[in-house]
Structures are given as C-alpha cells and as structure tokens.
From TrEMBL:
Catalysed reaction equations from the record: oxaloacetate + acetyl-CoA + H2O = citrate + CoA + H(+)
The protein's name: Citrate synthase
One GO CC term, this protein: cytoplasm
Keywords in alphabetical order: Acyltransferase, Transferase, Tricarboxylic acid cycle
InterPro entries according to UniProt: Citrate_synth-like_lrg_a-sub, Citrate_synth-like_sm_a-sub, Citrate_synthase, Citrate_synthase_AS, Citrate_synthase_bac-typ, Citrate_synthase_sf, Citrate_synthase_typ-I
Active site per UniProt: H313, D371
Family: Belongs to the citrate synthase family.
Any one GO molecular function term: citrate synthase activity
Encoding gene, per UniProt annotation: gltA
Entry keyword Transmembrane: no
Length: 437
C-alpha cells in the first residue's frame, strides 16, 4: 500500500504475465472496512474481479445501516439496534431509516398519521386474492399482490420525482400490514378486516390478522409491543441478498413496487428470510432434547446437506445482536401468554447451548441469527409458520425502500451489470440435425 501526493492511500497490483502495474485508490468509510476502488481495473488490466457471493465486495456507498460482524454490532443511522428495540417504535425507526434522523414530536405525529391514512388498499386489489388457491403459500401471494401495486398507483412510479418516491415509500410501508393480514385471512377463509386509524401500526396489523367482523377484538398491548419490537429487529440489514436484489432491480429504473416484489422473492429463500419458517420445522423435526446430538452431528457432516437453520451468518461471526433481543422477547411473550413449558423453546435453548460449546460451531463462528428465536414467538402469538417470512418481508419493506431511495438519489448510481469468468465452449460451427448422427 502506498500514498499519492494528496495523501490518498493506494494499492498496486502487478500482473506477473506482463509486469504491468495498476494502482487503485483506497476509500475510507466513516467506520468499518475501507474499500479498494477498482472501477478502472478492467479498463487498465483487461481483467474482472472474481467474487461469487460477493464475500469481499462492496456494491455501493450507504449511510443507512452499519454492521460489525466480529463485534456483533448493528447500527441504524448510528443508533444501536438494542437501544432502538428497547426505546423506539417501528414507525419511528421507519422515519429514521427513510430520513436519516429521529423524528421530532411534530414529525412523528405527522408520519404516524400518514401511515394510518395510507393503510387501506385499492378495493380492486382484494380481487387478486380470489385468484389464488386457499392453500397458496402466503409469500407467493405477497410476491403477486405487491408487484401488482404498480398497476394501481401510477401517480407514484416516476422514480425521478422525489415527491412520487416519497409517496411510494409511504404507501408501501403503510400497506404491507394490510396486504399481509389479507394473505392470512384468505388462507383461513375469513373475511378481510379493514385497517383502523385509531390503532398503532403493530396493533392494526394484529387486529387485521386476528380480529373478525363478528365481535370486538381487543389487541393485547404486550403482544403489540412485541410485534413492534420484532418489526424493528427486521427493518434493515445493510446489503443482504434481498436488499441487493431491490437495488439491482431499481438500478434499471424499475418502479418501486416491482423492486419490492423482487426483494420479497429473494427473501423467501431458506438461506435468507425463509430461515425462520425452516427453523420451526427443524425444531419440530428434532422433536425432543435428546435428539439434539444427532442433529448437531448431521449439521457437521459434509456429506449431509442438513444445516442448523437459524445458525450462521455471512457477516456476523459473533452473536447476532437481534437474536439476543429476540430471545428476551420470546420469554416475555411466552410469559404474557402463560405458556410455561414450550418444548420448542426448550429444544432451541438446549440446541443453542450445545452448538455454542461445540468445536465445529466455534471454529466456524456459527451463532444463532435473527431467525433462530423469532419463529417461537410468532407461533406463540398464533401465526402459522407459513406467515413467518411474510412478517419478515412486512418489516423489511422500510429497509428495502430506504436503500432503493438512497440508490436512486446517489449521483454515481448506474445500472448494475456484473461480468463473469467464462469457462464454456469457445466458438464452434453449427451442425445441422441430419449431420449429427
Ligand atoms: C438472514 O445477509 C443478511 O444480513 C441476512 C439477514 C438479514 O437480516 O437480511 O441477516 C437475514 O438471512 C439470516 C440467515 C438465515 N439463514 C439461516 O439461518 C440458514 C442457515 N445458515 C446458513 O445457510 C449460512 O450460515 C448462511 C447462508 C446464513 C451464510 O452462509 P455463508 O456466509 O455463505 O457461509 P457458508 O455457507 O460458506 O458457511 C461457512 C461454513 C461452511 O462450512 P465449510 O464449507 O467452510 O466447511 O459454515 C458452515 C458451512 O457448511 N455452515 C453451517 C451452517 N452455516 C454455515 N454448518 C451447519 N449449520 C449451519 N447453519
């Protein structure tokens, strides 16, 4: 590493085939790893970088979320996740992610009112649900219905208009609970519940999910607080797979509703947001504490593709700070519901204890992640496992749309178009069918 005259640090690569050297600047962030600016690498060397899975690649500059994987730190606009989970509310965290600062009292009141006023969906949208089978996975419904929003809100799809960008963001954050609750209601054959403007964001979601037109439904304030906290814990997480999907889709100029639908599709995978559903299935499959050793053995067996769902993370090589808050919330919710002996929680805690003392997990730095405990809480609250990733998508929408907005407003933004290392056939002549033997 050397320094240029103006004090910029640089790194120089030498191609041993030609002796040619290329020097590239090192850019420093406010905190965290610096980056090597390789934008001129191909022009000067004729080589691409190669980084499948982007384990060493910074795709953008961002000011929204910072993660220190070694220390288990997660900051949203500089505020730590444990402070936000303990002292803030999800609508306030939404304002913070979108605008870069915590709202004043007046801003908070206005933003809360905007979300309440945008919570209804176009009445025609309810017709979409009847096209699905009742047993359709709710994530399939979310992909379809959210993508269809662009067919209803033409007045907020001009990505170059900051006013339209803002309205689209508000509409998406406000309508996701309604769309998600409708997906649940459709799966259980109950009528859709309209949102109520006298309820908070989390209260409204629980009311639309578990209330019915037949009788008044009183939302349990402890469950509403837990729901709000779970939403905060899932709000944003730097350049994860689904956020990168939203950014890449948005880089082509696609409308925000289509980009969020792409993010939902990416989140669905069991290696990502689908892990919360997979964790519960895994715990139910384990069935009892005495079957844990076998499960841990299988997770370590290279010939067995079984993995401990809810463990491990691309960035966290320490305990996921969200998992710690989630575990505490788990005890609070089970306590509030009077659930004394939840076998799945016993299995989860014993599995965590064993894994954290096992050489394999220690050496590979595999710790529980955000998905490990969330499913137990959500099950206790009455959600079916098929709804777990829907709740993740509901909460992550603010992160996706904040990152999308930051990308659109980034002056260096251009369409994302990675290259490749090609190892296929070189040019060959077409052979007509009659001559192929
Ligand atoms: C989320 O990126 C984000 O920020 C995501 C997220 C967010 O908020 O957006 O945090 C949300 O997606 C959390 C992760 C949820 N997924 C799971 O819980 C699924 C189980 N976990 C794994 O599939 C895995 O840990 C990943 C996908 C999360 C991370 O995989 P990496 O970083 O690509 O690491 P890897 O698969 O290369 O694993 C490294 C080693 C491997 O062994 P070796 O090949 O080096 O010998 O660790 C092993 C893996 O076999 N390993 C596991 C394991 N996870 C990794 N072994 C057993 N059980 C596991 N869970």
């Amino acid at each position: 590493m050397t320094q240029t005259k103006d004090g910029t640090n640089t790194v120089t690569l030498t191609d041993n085939r030609t002796g040619k050297q290329v020097t590239m600047p090192i850019l420093d962030g406010k905190v965290g790893p610096s980056v090597i600016d390789i934008r001129k690498l191909y022009a000067e060397t004729g080589c691409f970088t190669y980084d499948p899975g982007f384990t060493s690649t910074g795709s953008c500059e961002s000011q929204i979320t910072y993660i220190d994987g070694d220390e288990g730190v997660l900051l949203h606009r500089g505020y730590s996740i444990d402070e936000l989970a303990a002292q803030s509310t999800f609508p306030e965290v939404c304002f913070l992610l979108l605008n870069g600062h915590l709202p004043t009292a007046a801003e908070s009141t206005e933003f809360d009112s905007i979300l309440r006023r945008h919570s209804m969906v176009h009445e025609q949208l309810t017709k979409f649900y009847t096209g699905f089978r009742r047993d359709a996975h709710p994530m399939a419904i979310m992909c379809g219905v959210v993508g269809a929003l662009s067919a209803f809100y033409h007045d907020s799809t001009d990505i170059n208009d900051p006013v339209e960008r803002k309205i689209a963001a508000h509409r998406l954050i406000a309508k996701m609970p309604t769309i998600a609750a409708m997906a649940y209601k459709y799966s259980v054959g109950q009528p859709f519940m309209y949102p109520r403007n006298d309820l908070s964001y989390a209260e409204n979601f629980l009311y639309m999910t578990f209330g019915t037109p037949c009788e008044p439904y009183k939302v349990n304030p402890v469950l509403a607080k837990a729901m709000d906290k779970i939403f905060i814990l899932h709000a944003d997480h730097e350049q994860n797979a689904s956020t990168s999907t939203v950014r890449l889709a948005g880089s082509s100029g696609a409308n925000p509703f289509a980009c969020i639908a792409a993010g939902i599709a990416s989140l669905w995978g069991p290696a990502h947001g689908g892990a919360n559903e997979a964790v519960l299935k895994m715990l139910e499959e384990i069935g009892s504490v005495d079957r844990i050793p076998e499960c841990v053995r299988r997770a370590k067996d290279k010939n067995d593709n079984f993995r401990l769902m809810g463990f491990g993370h691309r960035v966290y090589k320490n305990y996921d700070p969200r998992a710690q808050v989630m575990r505490q919330a788990c005890h609070e919710v089970l306590g509030e519901l009077g659930i004394k002996d939840e076998p799945l929680l016993d299995i989860a805690m014993e599995l965590e204890r064993i894994a954290l003392t096992d050489e394999y997990f220690i050496e590979k730095k595999l710790y529980p992640n955000v998905d490990f405990y969330s499913g137990i809480i959500l099950k206790a609250m009455g959600f079916p496992t098929s709804m777990f990733t829907v709740l993740f998508a509901l909460a992550r929408t603010v992160g996706w749309i904040s990152q999308w907005k930051e990308m659109i407003e980034d002056p260096v933004q251009k369409i994302g178009r990675p290259r490749q290392l090609y190892t296929g056939e070189t040019k060959r002549t077409f052979v007509p069918l009659a001559e192929r033997g």
